[in-house]
């Protein structure tokens, strides 16, 4: 089915953080109801279809090349790499982590750190060089996940140590260039900017250095002085082990596995309490037709 721009926009917004939070906090979403009505998904809906089924159908429509937004790419990354090659029991995914002047789309921490910058066919490449420069100061490996539309430009302009992956028309991930793992390239003071103060103190502790004992108003400057003297490889390794502990998603494994594949990226990016997690699972398993009445 060929869809116009307004229908594609409605489909895309179904996977927004706003809709996901409303479903989790309220068990319904007026916005989701309106978007379902606008998106030309099967109506009247088969009584056997759950909301989860319909959202997966919406995502199938978004996966068509040329229509794919950042969320479609993020979903491929989460399902095919984070949950496909790794596990939340052994790896941690960080969304929107600060790296220098930028925030990384996603970073995976296992034995090392890998940053992923997403550039879909809808995105501009204007900021890419600056983003990559900042990521290389924090993460040992940097990967760009992009479209074939941007591939030639990305390959010709990005440093040789930066990996390049393409989301193909068949919704598979193809590695065009493998990233190099270079923790020695990182900057300890830039790493510090990505950490909370207690995490920075933990990094120092892992390296056998006592955290500064100064008033809170002076703490960040004192931490910066300590980090400026660290070996990059040591600082990076301690950062990885610290963040895997402080931001572990181990307890999310069961919840994420119960979500439909189309919502797993949203589930990992949204902080919910146990009650909200249970509520959204119940809502997703309810008949989809009821959602049309939310609007």
Q: What portion of residues is helical? A: 40-55%
Mean pLDDT: 92
What integer value in Å does the Rg equal? Answer: 21 Å
| Percent in strands | 5-15%
Quick summary:
By secondary structure, the chain is α/β, with parallel strands linked by helices. It has helices at 5-13, 17-26, 30-38, 51-62, 70-82, 128-135, 148-157, 188-193, 197-206, 216-227, 232-246, 253-258, 264-269, 274-284; strands at 92-99, 102-109, 113-119, 141-146, 163-167, 173-177.
Describe the protein:
The protein is 46% helix and 13% strand. With 295 residues, it is α/β, with parallel strands linked by helices. The chain has 3 domains: 5-66 and 260-293, no CATH class; 89-183, 3-Layer(aba) Sandwich (Trna Endonuclease, Chain: A, domain 1), CATH 3.40.1350; 187-246, no CATH class. A 6-stranded mixed β-sheet has the order 1-2-3-4-5-6, with helices on both faces. Strand 4, helix 7 and strand 5 (163-167) form a beta-alpha-beta unit. It is globular. The model has no long low-confidence stretch (mean pLDDT 92).
Keywords, separated by commas or semicolons:
single chain, 295 residues, alpha/beta, Trna Endonuclease, Chain: A, domain 1, 3 domains, six-stranded mixed beta sheet, 14 helices, Sce7726 family protein, Sce7726-like
List the helices and strands and how they pair.
Layout: H1 5-13, H2 17-26, H3 30-38, H4 51-62, H5 70-82, E1 92-99, E2 102-109, E3 113-119, H6 128-135, E4 141-146, H7 148-157, E5 163-167, E6 173-177, H8 188-193, H9 197-206, H10 216-227, H11 232-246, H12 253-258, H13 264-269, H14 274-284
Helix pairs in contact: 1-3, 2-14, 9-10, 9-11
């Amino acid at each position: 089915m060929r869809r116009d721009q307004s229908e594609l926009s409605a489909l895309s917004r179904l996977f927004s953080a706003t809709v996901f939070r409303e479903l989790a906090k309220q068990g319904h979403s007026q916005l989701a109801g309106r978007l379902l009505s606008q998106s030309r998904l099967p109506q009247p809906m088969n009584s056997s279809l759950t909301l989860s089924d319909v959202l997966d159908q919406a995502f199938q429509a978004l996966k068509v090349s040329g229509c794919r937004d950042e969320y479609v790419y993020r979903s491929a990354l989460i399902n095919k790499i984070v949950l496909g090659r790794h596990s939340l029991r052994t790896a941690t995914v960080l969304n929107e982590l600060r790296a220098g002047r930028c925030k990384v789309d996603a970073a995976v921490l296992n034995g090392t750190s890998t940053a992923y910058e997403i550039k879909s066919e809808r995105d501009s490449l204007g900021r890419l060089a600056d983003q990559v420069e900042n990521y290389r100061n924090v993460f040992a490996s940097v990967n760009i996940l992009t479209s074939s539309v941007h591939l030639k430009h990305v390959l010709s302009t990005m440093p040789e140590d930066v990996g390049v992956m393409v989301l193909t028309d068949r919704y598979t991930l193809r590695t065009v260039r493998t990233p190099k793992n270079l923790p020695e390239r990182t900057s300890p003071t830039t790493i510090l900017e990505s950490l909370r103060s207690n995490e920075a103190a933990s990094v120092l502790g892992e390296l056998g250095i006592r955290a500064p004992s100064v008033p809170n108003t002076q703490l960040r400057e004192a931490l910066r002085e300590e980090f400026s003297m660290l070996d990059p490889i040591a600082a990076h390794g301690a950062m990885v082990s610290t963040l895997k502990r402080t931001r572990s998603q181990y307890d999310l494994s069961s919840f994420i596995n119960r979500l439909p594949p189309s919502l797993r990226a949203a589930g990992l990016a949204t902080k919910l309490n146990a009650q909200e997690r249970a509520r959204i699972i119940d809502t997703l398993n309810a008949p989809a037709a009821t959602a049309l009445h939310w609007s």
